[in-house]
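HUMAN:
Just now I want nothing more than another pair of eyes on a protein record. I would be glad if you read both lines and explained how they fit together. I have put the entry right below:
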Amino acid sequence: MKFAVQWIRSLLFVGQMYLMMAMIGLLYFPWAVFSPKGARAACKAYCRWVRWTARWMVGLRTEVRGTPPTGEVLIAAKHQSFLDIMLIFGAVPAGKFIMKRELMYAPVIGQYALRIGCVPVDRGKRSAAIKKMVADVAKGAQLPGQLIIYPQGTRIAPGVVAPYKVGSGALYGELQQDCIPVATNVGVFWPRKGIMRQPGTAVVEFLPPIKAGLDKATYMARLQNEIETASDALMAEAGFDADGIR
C-alpha cells in the first residue's frame, strides 16, 4: 500500500514537472529569444520549481554542499539522473553543459540549452566528437560561464562501475582552467529511468578544485578517485548498499 501511494505521488509529480517545463518555457520565451539572460532565468525558475514540488509532493528534499564556483572553471560531475543537472545548474551563476547532440531537438530543453550556451556533441564518433567539442568550446570562450561536463558521458545508476572518458581530460588540457569535481547521490532517490521517486535528501557536493596544469593521466586519475570516493560516501549516507538496497 505504501509503495502504491508513493508511486501515485511520483506519477503526479512527474506529470506536473513536464507540464510546468512547457509553461515556464512559453512564459519566458519572448525574453529568451532576445537575451541569453532570459533563457537562463527561465531555466533557474524551473529548477527552483522542481526542487520545491519534489519536497512536498514526494518527500524528496535537495541539498547543495561545498562552494559552487562563480568564475570561469570546468565542472566535472557525477551524473545519475535529471535531478543532478538541475541542482548543479541552479547552484552556479552561468552554467552551460556539454550535451549530446540529440537534445538539441528536444522540445523546450533543446532550444533553451542552446540559448544558455550549451555545447552539443556527437557521441557516436569519439575522436571527432572530442575535437569538435574542444573547438566549439574555444569558439564560445568569450561567453562567461561555468562549463559542465559529465566525464562518464551518461547517467550512471548507483552501484554501477563505468569508465571515465577522455573528453574531460581533453577539455581540462585545452582550457587550462581549474576543474571543480562534483559528487552526488541523487540516483538513490531519482532513478535514471522510470516514475518512482523516493523520499529522502538528494545531495550534490562541490569538491575542492583540481588546479590547472596537471598532465592528463594525473588529472583523470585524481578526478575519478575524488568523485567516486565522495559519491560513495554520499550514497552510503543515504542508506545505499552495494546491492542497491535501501
Summary: The radius of gyration is 18 Å. Residues 116 and 129 are 21 Å apart (CA to CA). Residues 61-237 form a domain with the Glycerol-3-phosphate (1)-acyltransferase fold (CATH 3.40.1130.10).
